[in-house]
């Protein structure tokens, strides 16, 4: 199934905003109904597709014209990603960043052939998995480009139950990967919010991190090997789980966001399917108290599989358990809600849960029972649907995220909140800024912010200064410009400052060597030379 | 204190071979006494030191001539590393790879100045920490080079007990780092065999892995940030514990072995000092049975802090507990000895130990009590002293190591053993080949081989074909050319094959950008252009 072109997910799952939320938007944020309905798909203007000689070369590369698409719908479905500005633009009928063609290779060699054909015909290439980028990772700074859709490369190539590894093709969607692994009793354990749509290749390219990262680790920690197709040939990495043979080339491919090559296979570590899953709610008096509790578990254990903490605002609004929003009694809670989840064998889960509960209690937590946890688990992939409904209602809603070391978390939290609040208030649309910690490490944590406000006259332009102020706050408070969304084009200028001039030069040197004609995702991650 | 120039460690700790071992060498391996005593240090011929203008420039770079040394002893002490061929050469009076000068900067800026001075005066630079490389990492392919000794940069720059991080200078030796951290109640937990002499910078440059890696992780997993001084300026990495902001540049510096720059600070994660340490012995009927037991713990836990398994030969010889060799009753044990160690709080350690014991028992293990564990712990840094004694006795002794995925461990084990045994037997010196697993991961393990044989006429040349055969076996059986020793010059040609042509080109591109004049460790890791 294809995703809703003008928003998120399965159109059948779209839900209107609960009345309670509509009232909140109106009374608290001054949101007024506006006509924000998407244009009709077939009325959206498009540039000319790629010229015929290029299309013929692409068809040759992928085994025939059936796998090269230039129809309007396919091109629009491959236009940009799923950030709020992306949605606002496409809803408004702006397909200015549409690919000149969409090509669907089925093998590594076909990917290599596509790269050659594009270099010959002056086309750039944007690798396209689930299309869920929220950082401008699918809109290169080149007008003539081809979207290289990896959906035909969706097989499990190998599984090694002894070593607990599996080799997966990049176009495999996460639920399909889980289904294939489940047949052997295994799971990958990677459940980001984009889970239902995102692909293995995308996870690797963007250094994804899932909601169960406390237990299963980040995606970059799961990857044991990668194959990369580049205009200059093939790069194969990962002969051993760990090695001292030079710099870890896997970590150069992970996070390269398609700028160095197209990931054509990923070998990942897999784990036994958990027998039990328990998610529970806890309440803390303050975000600081809750953060300290999470830190204790992250540093001294026992480590839950899922561990997250909403700040006071997110808790009050009910977004700590998105599924509960608008339902009787759920929102408007005091303090901060935390979710702790445990997955594993029954015995091990029970013990970990009991011990973690003791730590959380000692740190000031009040046990809320399983209901908040189950509500969170049930609604864990629904926030992007909620955003569509907010946009429909004339509100603006967007998220951004960062990470830093534990001792700097309070400063970073305050700096980003202040930046967003002040900028949007000064622009006449005082926002609701919510935050949660959703990924914890021994040495630090991520901070994930959700902003809701009234839309400005031009909603995209209205948001830009707030996002810019947040980015500046992230950098000056010592955070990373992205903990799991990636760089794309949206974060690029701040990323360059974070990596530093020489870091950027090192990456540029790699880029020039692997992609001398700048065919791959020009302007994404690194600026065009 | 300086290390013994002609061998390993503290000369006061040198010990003669036990008679039992001498008998074994003679009867089993045909080792004959030979005159292998080192030449006198002051009789070793040396090339001319660096010319005066270069020395003046170096003195300017490091705040005066007191920190630029050209005396014979200092130059000889900075000649090559501590591989067996290195020792054989220096014992034989061959200081052909001696640096033209030894320079001792005290700050990051002084390191930058040294790099500039060397580029101007046509000198290469070899960063020098503990001097413990066993892969030719200190003998560049350029005759005129300076050893950049980092011993003056041995401070702890910062400690953050909340985030549990510390920022350390590169010349800090591991025991000194532990002493500094212990004042705050923390440990790094990195205990490789070179522990007593090796430095923080060396650990990072060579992607070191310590004996407690099952509990504390590899050094590359401990590193959160690095500062690198290069001829083109400074590279600073690590704004957050984890990030999705592009490729992980830390992993490009880790394992770069001084070829990309000089590491001038390392931010590491630290952990609370353990309250308890328990090391115990287990016996398995076969290496395969033991390996399966280790795999179970690595995959499903509970994970001991130290976990190692000697094969039948190593167990029989007694090298599973080096401290026991030659003592009554210790060697000549049957089956395979494993050591499992636990460190942490008393309660947590006790439980982990009990649960791990159940797993080891279920996997066929027989509990041997604490004595073998304590013997192992007591002798854990003594193997290199034993090697000196073996060389003195006219024997040859060397180690090599690799890693692969669990399902390939048996094949890799057999391939390397066979390669070493056949090559040395054909050359007239049938060896004793011993092996242990000392690092376990969810997805695989390391294999560490020790070879003892009679010396050939020219011991260095005699060993070369065996080492080459072992390297070929490693690559063809799917292993990595090094799990924790690194690449240096010794493994380079095999490393190039492991990384693949395009991987090598990517690294070369980085090298050229950061070190355009090939000042840094020319020929180490990557061949000279």
UniProtKB/TrEMBL annotation, chains A, B:
Keywords associated with the record = FAD, Flavoprotein
Which InterPro entries does UniProt cross-reference here?
A: Alkyl-DHAP_Synthase, FAD-bd_oxidored_4_C, FAD-bd_PCMH, FAD-bd_PCMH-like_sf, FAD-bd_PCMH_sub2, FAD-linked_Oxase-like_C, Oxid_FAD_bind_N, Vanillyl_alc_oxidase_C-sub2
Site positions for Important for enzyme activity: 308
Which spans of this chain does the record mark as coiled coil? none
PROSITE patterns in the record, alphabetically?
A: FAD_PCMH (PS51387)
The Swiss-Prot or TrEMBL record describes its family as follows: Belongs to the FAD-binding oxidoreductase/transferase type 4 family.
Q: What is the protein name given in its UniProt record? A: FAD-binding oxidoreductase
């Amino acid at each position: 199934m294809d995703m809703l072109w003008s928003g998120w997910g399965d159109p059948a799952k779209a839900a209107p905003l609960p009345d309670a939320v509509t009232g909140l938007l109106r009374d608290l944020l001054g949101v007024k109904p506006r006509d924000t309905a998407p244009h009709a798909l077939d009325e959206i203007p498009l540039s000319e597709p790629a010229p015929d000689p290029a299309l013929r070369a692409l068809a040759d590369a992928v085994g025939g014209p059936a796998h090269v698409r230039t129809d309007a719908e396919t091109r629009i479905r491959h236009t940009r990603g799923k950030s709020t500005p992306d949605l606002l633009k496409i809803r408004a009928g702006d397909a200015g960043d549409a690919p000149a063609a969409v090509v669907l290779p089925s093998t590594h060699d076909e990917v290599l052939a596509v790269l050659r054909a594009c270099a010959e015909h002056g086309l750039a290439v944007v690798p396209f998995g689930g299309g869920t980028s929220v950082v401008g990772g699918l809109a290169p700074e080149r007008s003539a480009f081809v979207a290289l859709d990896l959906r035909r490369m969706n097989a499990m190539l190998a599984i090694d139950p002894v070593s607990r590894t599996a080799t997966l093709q990049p176009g495999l969607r996460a639920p399909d990967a889980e289904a294939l692994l489940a047949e052997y009793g295994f799971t990958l354990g990677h459940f980001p919010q984009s889970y239902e749509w995102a692909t293995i290749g995308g996870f690797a390219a963007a250094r994804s991190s899932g909601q169960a990262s406390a237990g299963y680790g980040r995606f970059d920690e799961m990857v044991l090997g990668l194959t990369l197709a580049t205009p200059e040939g093939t790069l194969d990495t990962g002969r051993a789980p760990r090695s001292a043979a030079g710099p870890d080339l896997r970590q150069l491919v992970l996070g390269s966001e398609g700028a160095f090559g197209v990931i054509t296979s990923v070998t990942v570590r897999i784990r036994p399917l958990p027998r039990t899953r328990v998610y529970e709610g806890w309440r803390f008096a303050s975000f600081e108290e809750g953060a300290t509790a999470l830190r204790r578990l992250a540093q001294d254990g026992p480590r839950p599989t899922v561990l997250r903490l909403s700040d006071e605002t997110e808790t009050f609004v009910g977004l700590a358990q998105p599924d509960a929003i608008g339902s009787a009694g759920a929102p408007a809670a005091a303090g901060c809600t935390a979710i702790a989840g445990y997955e594993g064998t029954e015995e091990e889960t029970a013990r970990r849960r009991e011990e973690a509960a003791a730590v959380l209690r000692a740190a000031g937590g009040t046990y809320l029972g399983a209901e908040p946890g189950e509500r969170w688990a049930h609604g864990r992939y629904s926030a992007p649907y909620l955003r569509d409904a907010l946009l429909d209602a004339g509100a603006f809603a967007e998220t951004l995220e960062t990470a830093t070391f534990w001792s700097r978390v309070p400063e970073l939290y305050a700096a980003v909140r202040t930046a967003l609040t002040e900028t949007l208030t000064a622009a006449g649309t005082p926002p609701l800024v919510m935050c949660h910690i959703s990924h914890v490490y021994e040495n630090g944590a991520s901070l994930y912010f959700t902003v809701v406000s009234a839309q400005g006259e031009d909603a995209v332009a209205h948001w830009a200064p707030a996002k810019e102020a947040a980015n500046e706050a992230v950098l000056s408070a010592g955070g990373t410009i992205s903990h799991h969304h990636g760089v794309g084009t949206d974060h690029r200028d701040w990323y360059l400052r974070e990596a530093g001039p020489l870091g950027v030069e090192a990456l540029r040197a790699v880029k020039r060597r692997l992609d001398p004609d700048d065919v791959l995702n020009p302007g994404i991650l690194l600026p065009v030379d």
